[in-house]
Design goal:
Length: 549
């Protein structure tokens, strides 16, 4: 008989999988906005720390007067450096009162009056990248502040981030009390808790009940209990921990599988063997299920948990603000900016609307090409409401040539990337107040066909079907059409030959199989009827873009 060989790796895997803490089922971020890639402008690429209320107002005016707003660029995003260097006396973020004298709410009203929406910035860290107060562990109050200001786009950076500990405190007991009652009316000892995965009871006479729970670190286990409360409301949950170790520890509490609380337990140098951590918890009348675990098995888990927390707070804050004030909700587009280091394409769709895939863009061709090369591979993660973000546009900045500017814009549209301008749009308005339609950068940014490719309601990112000196990208469009982009990465004119019938065979493309296609050249604005091939030649670092039907 063929004896099965013992596989130690498989045994370990089985054990770990079994003991994995079950995650609450989450689908998309689902805040109803950014169903097509967001379009707008941001202060960072060109203006860096030289920003002011006056500049933002001038930009908003120019966005409206130049027709950019009408072309779809609606978000006016203030990036880093808008903050005062300290929070206010209530712990709220506040703007620099010298450069933003009227405050952010007034600015958002100014921007709204022009048919535009205001965006703001913070970091998922103790400070922003430019070292101003930031939002880590201030998620709730900062989300409330942004909602109150009427902000509709929020970029959340990753500077000065602090990883959540993967260690859980040792739980000696759990108590629940009604506020003001002076005593716990429920006390759960270690033996009252249901253990999952590696959770175990360790005897210890230095604890009140002679034992504590261990083994719930790093996604390895959890404890749960069913508790009864007389009425719905807020209760104080006191976790008595067995002290030990200088490192901070972390617990996630899930109530009834839906409400999530983050509980931090400080490292200790204290004399006492036991300490208490308290959290105000909302419970429903009757039975409630509580579950405690530490879901941080990796650095990626830490980033995902932190970004998801901010995402939830933003949704809660805009909803609550609208309900309290009897106004229409203004959902906030949530832009995750952790530079791709923790693979946000794997968890970003649950946390927010878009996620940076790379480090910062620079206004040079090498940078643009590098970000494209990386992001083109991530096509399967883009979908309506959730986008790969290869960073804001540098079109019109630095030393990009005309061809490079046009290619940069075209590639971003093929990638379903957010189109967040980074140039000085005030230049599009002439001294007499008219629009400078001869401005080549303006012409690139307002090419309606190119914008429509980016904004196509199918929301399917292009795939690269050929690569080398010349790349060919194909993106399905609504109505049995496809966008085809030929990118010449070399220093000499170069191109390729594309048989259109073969495009219809690509599984993900919805082109009909037929003998002749209508081919529209998006930059030349020329149409060829009944075509079976495209013979494309592009300038060095240039593109040709077609819509095939
Ligand atoms: C990081 C981000 C940039 C910008 C700056 C601001 O570098 O990636 O896009 O927001 O911070 O300080």
């Amino acid at each position: 008989m063929n004896k099965k060989k013992f596989c130690p790796v498989c045994a370990v895997k089985k054990l770990v999988n079994k003991s994995r803490v079950s995650q609450c089922s989450e689908r998309g971020y689902d805040n109803g906005v950014a169903m097509t890639p967001p379009m707008g402008w941001s202060s960072w690429n060109l203006f860096r720390n030289k920003i002011s209320e006056e500049l933002i107002k001038e930009i908003a005016d120019a966005m409206k007067d130049s027709g950019l707003a009408e072309a779809g660029y609606v978000y006016v995003n203030i990036d880093d450096c808008w903050q005062a260097s300290t929070r206010d006396e209530n712990g709220r973020l506040r703007c620099d009162k010298v450069t933003f004298p009227s405050g952010i709410k007034a600015l958002s009203e100014y921007v709204n009056a022009r048919g535009l929406k205001l965006g703001i910035y913070s970091s998922n860290g103790t400070l922003t990248c430019e070292d101003y107060p930031a939002s880590l562990r201030h998620e709730r109050e900062d989300a409330d502040t942004f909602a109150q200001w009427g902000v509709e786009y929020f970029k959340y950076d990753f500077c000065h981030n602090e990883k959540i500990s993967s260690e859980a405190p040792k739980i000696a007991s759990i108590g629940f009390s009604a506020e003001g009652s002076g005593k716990d009316f429920i006390v759960l000892r270690p033996s009252d808790l249901t253990l999952h995965g590696r959770a175990r009871i360790v005897e210890d006479e230095d604890t009140e009940f002679g034992a504590y729970i261990a083994g719930i670190d790093a996604r390895l286990g959890s404890v749960s209990a069913e508790i009864q409360v007389p009425e719905s409301g807020e209760y104080i949950m006191t976790i008595t921990v067995r002290k030990g170790g200088l490192k901070e520890k972390f617990l996630r509490l899930m109530v009834n599988g839906k409400d999530e609380y983050h509980i931090y337990c400080p490292g200790t140098k204290a004399w006492s063997t036991e300490g208490r951590i308290q959290t105000a918890v909302k419970l429903d009348e009757g039975e409630n299920r509580i579950e405690l675990s530490n879901p941080i098995g990796s650095v990626m888990d830490s980033a995902a948990v932190q970004y998801k927390l901010m995402g939830r707070e933003l949704k809660r804050a805009t909803k609550e603000y609208a309900e309290k004030n009897g106004v229409e909700e203004k959902p906030i587009v949530f832009s995750i900016c952790e530079w791709g280091v923790n693979k946000p394409w794997k968890w970003g769709m649950e946390a927010g609307n878009l996620w940076r895939t790379t480090m910062d863009i620079k206004p040079h061709w090498i940078s643009v090409l590098g970000l494209y090369e990386f992001t083109v591979r991530l096509h399967k993660y883009a979908a309506p409401g959730s986008w790969n973000d290869p960073d804001m546009l540098e079109v019109g900045n630095g030393d990009l040539t005309f061809e490079e500017n046009r290619s940069h814009f075209s590639l971003w549209c093929m990638l379903c990337a957010p189109l967040i301008l980074g140039n000085d749009v005030r230049k599009f308005i002439k001294a007499d107040g008219s629009i400078d339609t001869d401005n080549k950068i303006y012409q690139i940014l307002t090419n309606r066909d190119m914008i429509a490719i980016d904004q196509d309601p199918l929301g399917v990112q292009c795939r690269r079907i050929k690569t080398g000196k010349v790349d060919v990208l194909v993106k399905p469009l609504q109505g049995s059409r496809a966008a085809v982009c030929v990118l010449n990465k070399s220093g000499k004119p170069d191109g390729t030959h594309i048989e259109l019938g073969k495009l219809a065979n690509l599984g993900y493309v919805n082109l009909k199989k037929k003998s002749g296609y209508t081919v529209y050249d998006v930059w030349e604005k020329r149409t060829a009827e009944n075509a079976s091939v495209i013979n494309a030649v592009a300038e060095p670092h240039g593109v040709k873009v077609y819509i095939v039907e």
